[in-house]
Design brief:
The protein is of the alpha+beta class. It has three domains: 44 residues, no CATH class; 165 residues, Bacterial polysaccharide co-polymerase-like; 131 residues. Helices cover 64% and strands 8% of the residues. Strands 2-3-1-4 form a four-stranded antiparallel beta sheet. A hairpin with a 5-residue loop joins strand 2 and strand 3. 19% of the residues are buried. InterPro entries: Bact_polysacc_biosynth/exp (IPR050445). Keywords: Membrane, Sugar transport, Transmembrane, Transmembrane helix, Transport. This is Sugar transporter.
Length: 389
């Protein structure tokens, strides 16, 4: 049996491979790209480097660090006058100082002590110098470049760095800023103390007026009713009634004894009866007046007692309020003599010996990087627009 012949499988056709690309050729767009790079990046960076290292003047930095401290008022103040801390220092003190250091008000104050225009101006360095505009707006804008404030809100520490062309100018400016900031804190403390004293004085004056009014009302009551103390007066009237009743009982007993031993026409009996009648009339008059302050006053005596007690309570409250207000006022006056807030410097203004600014390499790297980034963005935008055509 012959085996069937199986035809051999023909090899597959291999796709024709294109030859490798030739060497890249410099085209016009490449020349333009390189030209723009040189024009937009290399030349400006070289000019900036030449200015930094050949023209820019050295600047010196003076550093000062301080914090706002406060005086804790003891518990005796709270016990005497019920006062809290006088002029307490809050976490906003550092923010106030930071804003004040960067304000035109401080620029004017420091400029009166140090010639800022002379300290910040060098005619041969127009980039880092103040320039010819000496108005407060331009001076304040340049101040932001020369004075740097670092505030740590957690610890309350404030660090200040002042840059100037002369080290003594930088130190003088830093010293002036510290002294003006200390004066501001003292003014704020004085305002807080004055507010506290004024409030204590107003409370004391109100307490005095209330005490005078209470005493005047009580005096008017006594003048109107002719009663010094209704309670004592009531006790006196009650004692008088008891005495009259005892006398009436004794007179009746005496009259009965006389009637048993003598006739009704006896002179002693007549006198005894007159005595009994007089005691009864007096007793009736006293009983009728006991319920009233006066015979002509329609106000009941119990109401007078209630009015007197109310006036007495008002007087006692006014006296206690006066004592508390007076103690608070005296305490406020005593605490006003003490500084409750002050500026404490833990790093005094330094005098630099080496020029650290401007940081030429850092500024050159920043400018070169910015130029490179700008050129890259423009180049990518150009090719993106070109590919869409």
């Amino acid at each position: 049996m012959q085996s069937a012949t199986v035809p051999l499988e023909t090899p597959r056709t291999v796709a024709q491979i294109r030859p490798a690309a030739g060497p890249a050729r410099l085209r016009r767009r490449h020349v333009g790209l390189i030209g723009t790079f040189v024009l937009c990046v290399v030349i400006p960076a070289c000019l900036w480097a030449a200015y930094l290292f050949a023209v820019a003047r050295d600047q010196f930095a003076s550093t000062v660090a301080f914090s706002v401290r406060k005086h804790e008022v003891g518990a005796a103040v709270q016990l005497l006058g019920g006062l809290t801390e006088l002029g307490s220092s809050g976490p906003q003190d550092g923010d106030i100082l930071q804003d004040y250091i960067q304000s035109p008000a401080l620029v004017r104050a420091v400029d009166r002590r140090v010639d800022l225009a002379a300290a910040f101006t060098r005619p041969d360095d127009p980039v880092f110098s103040l320039g010819t505009d000496r108005r407060i707006e331009a001076l304040s804008a340049h101040w932001q470049r020369q004075v740097h404030v670092y505030h740590d809100g957690a610890t309350g520490l404030i660090e200040l760095r002042v840059e100037a062309f002369d080290p003594s100018d930088a130190q003088a400016i830093a010293t002036a800023i510290y002294e003006e900031s200390s004066a501001l804190i003292n003014r704020l403390s004085a305002i807080a103390r004055e507010d506290t004293i004024r409030n204590a004085r107003e409370d004391r004056d109100k307490a005095i007026a209330r005490l005078k009014a209470a005493r005047t009302a009580l005096t008017a009551f006594r003048s109107r009713t002719q009663i010094v103390d209704p309670a004592s007066d009531a006790q006196g009237r009650a004692g008088l009634l008891n005495t009259l009743q005892e006398q009436l009982a004794a007179a009746l007993i005496e009259l009965d004894l006389l009637l048993e031993n003598t006739s009704a026409q006896d002179v002693r009996v007549v006198q005894a009866r007159q005595k009994v009648a007089v005691i009864r009339e007096r007793l009736a008059a006293e009983r009728s007046q006991f319920g009233r302050a006066e015979a002509s006053d329609p106000q009941a005596f119990p109401e007078l007692v209630g009015e007197y007690e109310s006036l007495s309570v008002d007087l006692q409250f006014a006296e206690q309020s006066y004592l508390a207000a007076l103690a608070a006022y005296d305490t406020a006056l005593a605490e006003a003599q003490r500084k409750t807030r002050y500026l404490a410097s833990h790093v005094p203004p330094t005098l630099a010996e080496t020029a650290e600014y401007p940081r030429r390499f850092v500024l050159l790297a920043v400018v070169a990087g910015a130029l490179m980034l700008g050129w890259s963005i423009l180049a990518m935008a150009y090719y993106a627009l070109r590919d869409r055509r």
